[in-house]
User: Which sequence fits this backbone?
């Protein structure tokens, strides 16, 4: 790009106030800095700066896919229900699938993912082992009617995804491509400037057995990740918790008065025991709406996804529902529950000889309650959220827990889709077999949010060079004069000539306003041009990532300029000299 973006022309309306419904930095800052606007719940429009970033992220994904021999295609967003009936997912996918009808009453949906349509696309023509392996991909809007769209681009109802699909004759061939994808995903995260971690994961809706998620590490991430120094890492959804509940040591099964006790902490203090000697109740309902009471060691939290695996469709109940089912919040227990309530308990409580648990009566608890004798448990399962220090399933060392944002996931699907959809090839002997398949997704728009989660401070965003909407912002302290603005225009033009993407803040605004907005928008480098500096023969530089400022003499600038110009990788060389490395 050799043109210079002008702030006087750029459509990037900024907001002074943080929008009330934006809870995390990326959501707040992308709105405040004028990168995007909300069109409706979970639906966003990208403004010019946001769209420039999206393009750069897409381009990184595209280069990585092309680099491993994947071929780009484009499939329709709108898909016939018929194909989804064929795969069985019309029923299985649930309310997240956006369903509609065309004018003839034919069922359609907006693609949340494209396994069905891509098998259909090739099944009549990809027929010979000689044509395999093959990997196709696209970059396109996806639609999911999320239960809780939130956090801006992080969990939206329409989002941009790079989705790739591979076809193979053998599991070995699939594994080879899977490994290439895995490596490409790592490079994608690195090039996008993300601190990331690949973790073992659950395959969820998509299916298949072997799958890894790539997470950007961030406090605001919706996922909890556990990892060990031995290299084992997983999404906490699939990481086994290892609680160590202790026995309270009651001599008998007995109901005791616990006036005013409602929480585990109060119960432990009242009895003078540790929280690990108590049992916590959590109440929810399954997919059919049947109430479910879950019991876990008092010092642990419930992992809702594990609960969902034990009781399909599990969702925590509201206070009103709990009351409606006749359960006294704060004293709920497995003994004498009202009819029709399912009971689940954490595996670790199986061998605890006497539970300290609610008596289903306000102000009373039981001690010494034993499963199998005093009450029955319908489902024993691993229900607890893993805690820092739990044992690594691979080596037994203590695990650490962090949070992450899932930016991508790779799956070995095997023959799951090709079998049901008749995606077959013919081998050398003329026999037909279903393709082995892999699928691989990257959340392009979510990546933009994840980058901002990692790259922000109290002043705004600091974009990594690789995805910044422009590399450098030139800030003339005054405009309309015949010294400062012309000098700034000259620097801007020269940098653009070098191949840098340049924006010039040519607005007639106070310097304070320009500085604040440049910080908010996050250009990696600012070059300030002022009268005094010009007289002294220098510009002022500010590296946005570190907020370090320093002056640069005209000589220095000319030297860097000349040096960068001689190098093939001009932009990188220029920034290396300025001290901006990522
Ligand atoms: P999640 O568990 O966060 O709902 P998922 O596992 O259902 O995501 P995939 O089917 O693996 O998502 O889709 C591939 C990628 O698309 C994800 O890794 C994520 O980056 C992105 N993605 C999925 N759902 C959304 C969404 N609602 N908004 C933005 N990006 C999304
Ligand atoms: Mg996923």
Assistant:
């Amino acid at each position: 790009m050799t043109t210079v973006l002008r702030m006087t022309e750029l459509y990037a309306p900024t907001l002074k106030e943080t929008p009330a419904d934006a809870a995390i930095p990326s959501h707040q800052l992308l709105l405040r800095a004028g990168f995007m606007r909300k069109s409706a719940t979970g639906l966003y429009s990208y403004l010019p700066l946001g769209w420039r970033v999206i393009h750069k992220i897409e381009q990184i994904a595209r280069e990585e896919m092309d680099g491993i021999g994947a071929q780009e295609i484009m499939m329709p967003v709108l898909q016939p229900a018929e194909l989804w009936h064929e795969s069985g997912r019309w029923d299985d996918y649930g309310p997240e699938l956006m369903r509609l009808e065309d004018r003839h009453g034919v069922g359609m949906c907006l693609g949340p993912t494209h396994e069905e349509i891509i098998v259909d696309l090739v099944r009549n023509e990809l027929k010979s082992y000689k044509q395999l392996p093959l990997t196709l991909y696209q970059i396109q809007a996806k639609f999911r009617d999320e239960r809780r769209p939130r956090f801006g681009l992080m969990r939206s109802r329409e989002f941009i995804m790079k989705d790739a699909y591979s076809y193979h004759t053998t599991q070995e061939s699939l594994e080879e491509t899977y490994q290439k994808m895995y490596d490409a995903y790592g490079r994608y995260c690195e090039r996008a400037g993300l601190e990331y971690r690949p973790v073992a994961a659950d395959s969820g809706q998509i299916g298949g057995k072997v799958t890894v998620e790539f997470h950007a590490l961030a406090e605001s991430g919706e996922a909890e990740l556990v990892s060990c120094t031995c290299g084992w890492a997983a999404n906490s959804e699939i990481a086994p918790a290892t609680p160590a509940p202790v026995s309270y040591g009651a001599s008998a099964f007995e109901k005791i008065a616990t006036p005013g006790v409602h929480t585990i902490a109060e119960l432990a203090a009242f009895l003078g025991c540790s929280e690990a000697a108590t049992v916590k109740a959590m109440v929810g309902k399954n997919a059919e709406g049947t109430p479910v009471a879950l019991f876990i060691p008092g010092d642990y939290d419930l992992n809702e996804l594990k609960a969902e695996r034990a009781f399909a469709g599990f969702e925590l109940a509201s206070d009103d529902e709990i009351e409606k089912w006749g359960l006294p919040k704060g004293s709920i227990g497995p003994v004498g529950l009202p009819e029709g309530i399912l009971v689940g308990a954490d595996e670790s409580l199986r061998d605890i000889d006497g539970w300290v648990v609610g008596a289903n009566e306000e102000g009373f608890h039981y001690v010494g309650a034993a499963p199998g004798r005093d009450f029955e448990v319908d489902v024993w399962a691993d229900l607890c959220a893993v805690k820092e220090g739990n044992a690594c399933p691979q080596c037994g060392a203590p695990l650490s827990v962090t949070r992450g944002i899932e930016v991508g996931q790779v799956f070995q699907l095997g023959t799951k889709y090709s079998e049901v959809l008749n995606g077959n090839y013919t081998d050398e002997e003329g026999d037909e077999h279903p393709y082995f398949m892999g699928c691989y997704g990257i959340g392009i728009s979510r990546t933009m949010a994840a980058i901002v989660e990692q790259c922000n401070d109290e002043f705004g965003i600091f974009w990594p060079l690789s995805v910044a909407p422009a590399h450098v912002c030139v800030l003339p302290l005054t405009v309309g004069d015949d010294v400062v603005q012309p000098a700034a225009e000259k620097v801007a033009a020269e940098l653009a000539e070098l191949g840098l993407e340049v924006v010039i803040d040519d607005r007639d605004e106070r310097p304070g306003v320009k500085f604040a907005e440049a910080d908010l928008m996050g250009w990696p480098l600012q070059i300030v041009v002022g009268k005094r500096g010009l007289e002294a023969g220098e510009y002022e530089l500010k590296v946005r990532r570190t907020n370090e400022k320093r002056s640069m003499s005209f000589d220095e600038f000319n030297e860097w300029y000349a040096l960068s110009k001689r190098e093939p990788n001009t932009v990188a060389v220029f920034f290396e000299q300025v001290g901006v490395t990522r």
